[in-house]
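Structure request: ABC transporter ATP-binding protein, Planotetraspora kaengkrachanensis.
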Amino acid sequence: MLCVEGLEAGYGGARVLFGVSMEVGRGRLTCVMGRGGVGKTTLLNVVMGVLPASGGSVTFEGRSLTGLRPDERVRLGMGYVPHGHDTFPQLSVMGNLMVTVEASPHKDATAVDDALEVFPLLKPVLNRPAGSLSSGQQRRLAMARALVTRPRLLILDEPAEGVEASVVFEIGEAIERLRASGLAMLLVERYLDLALRLADDFVILDAGRVARSGTAEELKGEDVHRLLEV
Ligand SMILES: Nc1ncnc2c1ncn2[C@@H]1O[C@H](COP(=O)(O)OP(=O)(O)O)[C@@H](O)[C@H]1O
Ligand SMILES: [Mg+2]
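Returned structure:
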């Protein structure tokens, strides 16, 4: 469903991705792993069109994404939860969700109810400004906002980072339920335990190149740990 081929990208003169190829199959969860600074976030940003590629291609459901803006990619069915918080702090939780409905291709407010079923703990705080929420609640809201666009591919950059253990657990459960519903996902995750529990397929990046890739079964080995050691 998502096919990345020979992707090259960087910042100014500094190359970060060197010929990265990977894919996400329909209804599958591909987990991108690797040490800090190897290019995981850069890869997601290029896939979403936030950052330009200097070479290679990205196709989604058979369609080339070259030249499309991030919002156009969202309209095609790609949802993105970037690293850290991504909410409008002054707007209420409901306001954050409604803004996203209005910007989405379907403009269907029942998508908000569906997203709140995935993160029911948001229901008691719908009128609170997003900026006043705990980091766990803000993370739930960021994920709910991406769901409101009704993506067919959900892209998540370290959704469990920097929140307490109970929220990590809940996000893991939500990801499992979403995958069970048929949603394809591209996940950057550094917690190996969580990644092993969730992923169908793995891509391990090292210094901007794919060091290993394969199904979760294929990668259940000790060298995976070596590639992830700091
Ligand atoms: N905005 C930026 N400008 C310049 N260099 C950057 C920028 N963002 C990331 N980098 C560099 O690109 C490399 C990859 O970063 P990143 O994709 O964030 O890695 P990861 O997500 O795997 O930790 C790092 O060396 C980082 O310092
Ligand atoms: Mg990162």
